[in-house]
Every structure is written in C-alpha cells, then in structure tokens.
Fold this protein.
Amino acid sequence: MSYCINPQCSQPQNSRQPLFCQACGSDLLLQGRYRVIRQLAGNIYEVDDSGTKKILKVLFNNHPQAIGLFQQEAEVLKRLNHPGVPKVKSDGYFTYTHRDSQQPLHCLVMEKIEGVNLEEYLTQRNHRPIGERTAVHWLKQLTEILHALHQQQYFHSDIKPPNIILRPGGQLVLINFGTAPEVTQAFIQKVPGQKVTGIISPGYTPSEQINAKAVPQSDFFALGRTFVYLLTGKSPENLPNQPRTGELIWRTDAMGISQKLLDFIDDLMAPCPENRPSDTQEILQKLSELETSLTSLSKNQRSGNLGPNYTDIGRRAIAQIIDISILTIATSSLSAIILSLALPSYPNILLTASVVTLYRTVCGTLFTLFLIFSLCIVHTKTDENTAILIVAVLGMIVHWLYFTLFEISKQQATPGKMVLKIIVTDENQNRLTFGKANKRYWSKTLSGLFLIGFTMTDFTEENQALHDRITNTTVLNKT
C-alpha cells in the first residue's frame, strides 16, 4: 500500500507499492526512503522507513509565518532528547514537491509513539476517573516535559487528552507540536486571506490564547483542564462555569481527591494567567509537596493512625449522618411530647417508646459513624455514593442483628430494656424465637416513624403497640 500526499490527487490510495502515484504521477517514495502507508488525521500520516513505522507531518500552508513556525518546531524537536517527546533525527525535516506544482510541501518525520492517548485510555475504562496518586504521577511527568520545552523558549499550546500518549511502560508522551510557536510571538493571528494559524480546542484553550495573547502559562491552563477530564471522566466543555468569575465547577464530580490537589488544579486553571504558577519549577515544587503529603497519608493508613488525614468523602458523609441523626432525635422527642399530652393515660408506654426510639437512633448513628471511618477514611479510593450505600446496608445489617439477637437472649440486656426494666415474650410468655424477634424488629422499624406504631396502645384492649399486635408479643416488667 502507498498513499499519495498530493492534496489535489483524486485517488491518493495506491493498491500496490509503485514509485509513482497511479492517479497523479507524484513521487510515492519521499526522499528516496519514506513510503506513506496511510493517512491518520488531517496532515498526519504513517510512513515506513526501511521497515520502521514513523509519523509524517505535512504543512499545507505556504504562508511565510506558518513555514517559519513549522521549521522552528522541527529544530526544537531535533534538539530535545526527552522520553516524553517524539524523537526527530537531523534529516527529519525536508521539502517535497508533487507533480505539476511549484510550491513545495514542508515535511517532518518523527518517531511513532506506541500506546493509547489519554482520551482513548479513559474511554476504555468506561470513563472511570483516575486516582489521586496516578494524577500526581502523570502531572509530574507532563510538567517535566513542559519544562524541557519551555527552556527552548517554546510552548505546546494544544495540551489535551488526545495529544498525550501513554506508552505500554507507563511513560507519557506529548505529541502534536505543530502549533508550538516561540513564546515571544503572538500565537493566534489572522493572516489576510488565510485561516487562523493557531488551534482552539474547546474546553482546553484559555481565553488569552483565543485572543492572540498566549503565554507560557497558557499551557498550564490546558494542563489543568486535562486533569479535570481525567479526574472526573467528563469533558471540561460539558461542565458549568461560575457566571461571575468564569471558574470551572468540577469539584463535586471528582471523588476521593484531596483538597490540596483540587486547589492545585484550580490554580493551574485560574482565569488570569498571572494567577497561575509562574513557571514549571513552581509546579514541580508543589507536586513534590503533594507527593510528600500522599506518602504521609499512606504511612498513617498502614500504621492504623487515621489522624486528621481523612478525605472529603468521610467528612461529607459524617456531616450528613450527624444531620440526619439530630433531625431524627429532635423529631422523636417532639413526637413523644405531643403523644404524652394526647394520651395521658399511658405515660409509661409512651416513655418506653420515646426511650427506645432515641436509643435506636443513637446506636444507629454510632454504628454508621464507625462504618464510615472504616470505609471512607481508610479506603480513600471508595467514591462517595458507593461508600454511603455500603454504610447504609452494613449499618442496617449490624443494627438488625444487634437488636434481634438481644430480643432472643435470656436477659434481653439491651441498655434500653435494662433502664426501663422490661422484657418481651410471646403470647405464652415464653422467650422469643429468632423468627418472631426478626418479625418484631421489622414491624417496629416500619411502624416506628414519628412513633405511629405506639399510638395503637390507646386503641387495643391489651394496650399493645402496633408491632406487638402484629407479632403477638407482650411487653412485661422484669420485676
């Protein structure tokens, strides 16, 4: 297979490997060595160089400024010797003139990077976000690449997930330097009779770059937006912005991420370039502090010392549980007061109902808080929704076993029953079976909202609560 790069060719795909295009007659063996195999995207092609697959980038714009930028890109990539940048050999830049044309095409051959880009990576993970450790590791790699690039007085200007390739060995590589100009020049400019020379990537390109005032910090903005995508699984273009400040609203979609990393990424994406990190050295210093913080957290978790390093997941979940518990206790207390006034002839039963309800709420809260600490704090990668679901299910199971087993025990020694000095039996005043205790637990749980189940005491001859009537159980004084 051979592919013709003549933009006017009507049939660029050649079924065999001839020296000349069968449709337009242009040379197919570029520089006498590179055979174009296929078009990858736009001006990007895959070529064969004596059995080695490489990438060919072709400039179809013959404006002097575009040619100058393309040549500068070639020189920078030749000088850079970094694992995060595609390698370009000294003879990788050349011009090619196709048949019946006086205008040469400017070409650049570079190393082909094996792997998947980060957009493909997240797609294959079903858009499941990466973790904090991976994010910090990748941020450090990309910042080191930008450091090497910025030292050459260049910036990338189109950082986004499709332009970052993850090699099989874990090394990230930044590709598509085609729009990288000198830092000292305005990047996006409209040339008479030409299109805008720069690339705008919605959701990733900062406003100053769109307004032809790109600076090195423009790369930092795009880097931050890239990690919003990686940490949330959502494109920044599809996330809302603060109407007043223009800041991206994304934190609620990033689960299990520390406040420090959230703040750091927001700093990268500050609307004003002067509010972003000043250079790559500052970013690397902050990343080093983040790595130290993560290492410290890991040591605390291994030693069992939770300390103050629990995550936002744990804090939010605890706050929710405490709010619900306070509301439940307040509602139960108010209901007990109202029912005591409405049913004055049965104060002991109402007191029992109030104590039991309050006690069950406190016990449930304690069980839930314990489970939150074990699930959300120790296992920091558990996302909030999953953690709360697990907490709710396990909390209910523990709560059910606790009360059901005590109901069938000989002493029925729950603190509530010990304080009130009562015992529950079946209709024959025998100890409850597990099945009857289980039935009583669930009927009490379902009928206990606002003490509704206990109002039945005023309407039955035996003064039974609803759950006791359903299960044919009797409440007796231990004395």
Observations:
- The CA atoms of residues 6 and 156 lie 28 Å apart.
- The chain has three domains: 2-111, 116-189+200-303, 312-477.
- DSSP finds 13 helices and 13 strands in the chain.
